[in-house]
């Protein structure tokens, strides 16, 4: 009798288009508020869409990407997914939805600290994005600008109105480039070929050769 180690690989579909759709849609909705296309003070519905589209959708896609061994996709979608969950709870707190005590104890400048922390994270991810495709590079560069401007607004540094406008338009552009990426990735997976060009990795930092797969061992019992 023998016991053999069996490794099961993930064989499901690529969740990237699904996850990027969540990011694109919440940025589209949130930018409408920042740019006053909708009421900037009415953030009640943003709480819902940030939690579901920005948060839940991206986190689900991230978990699948991790199962596939896609470190970039899992890390990016997971990190930004939880960012939007945090933003949903932050808006709920500032709106008094979680109680007047929570609202009174909130310091909006702490969001500035969050934005700085995510900026640091995003800078590392931006470097890695140059090994993916052109739309992802653009999205990550825009996200860097977004966190810089949001931090300045939170800490009230410089011309606040200007930074708020830059943040709004940056978020709007993230959504548009994101929607393009969704179409490009979905079409490629569905039709099996490139329909919308995504560009090739730039190869600025050479990746190490992948390690050979481990050999399954059989043990006698």
From TrEMBL:
Sorted UniProt keywords: Membrane, Transmembrane, Transmembrane helix
The compartments listed are:
Membrane
- Gene Ontology CC: one annotated term: membrane
From the record, give the transmembrane residue ranges. 12-30, 42-64, 76-99, 111-130, 136-155, 167-187
Membrane topology for this entry?
Multi-pass membrane protein
Q: Name one Pfam family in it.
A: Gpr1_Fun34_YaaH
Entry's PANTHER family? INNER MEMBRANE PROTEIN YAAH, SUCCINATE-ACETATE_PROTON SYMPORTER SATP
- Family per UniProt? Belongs to the acetate uptake transporter (AceTr) (TC 2.A.96) family.
Q: Output this protein's name.
A: Uncharacterized protein
Organism encoding this protein: Desulfosporosinus hippei DSM 8344
């Amino acid at each position: 009798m023998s016991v053999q180690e069996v490794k099961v690989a993930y064989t499901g579909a690529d969740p990237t288009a699904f996850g990027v759709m969540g990011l694109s849609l919440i940025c589209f909705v949130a930018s409408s508020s920042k740019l006053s296309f909708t009421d900037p003070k009415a953030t009640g519905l943003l709480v819902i869409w940030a939690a579901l589209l920005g948060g839940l959708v991206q986190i689900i896609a991230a978990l699948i990407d991790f199962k596939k061994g896609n470190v970039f996709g899992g890390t990016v979608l997971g990190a930004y997914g939880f960012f939007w969950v945090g933003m949903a709870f932050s808006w709920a707190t500032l709106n008094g939805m979680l109680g007047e005590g929570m609202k009174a104890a909130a310091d909006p400048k702490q969001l500035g600290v969050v934005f700085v922390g995510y900026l640091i994270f995003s800078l590392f991810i931006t470097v890695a994005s140059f090994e993916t495709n052109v739309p992802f590079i653009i999205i990550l560069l825009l996200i860097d600008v977004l966190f810089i401007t949001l931090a300045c607004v939170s800490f009230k540094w410089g011309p606040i109105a200007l930074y708020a406008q830059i943040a709004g338009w940056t978020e709007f552009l993230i959504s548009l480039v994101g929607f393009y990426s969704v179409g490009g990735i979905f079409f490629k997976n569905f039709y099996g070929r490139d329909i919308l060009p995504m560009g090739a990795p730039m190869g600025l930092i050479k990746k190490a050769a992948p390690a050979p797969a481990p050999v399954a061992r059989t043990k006698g019992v």
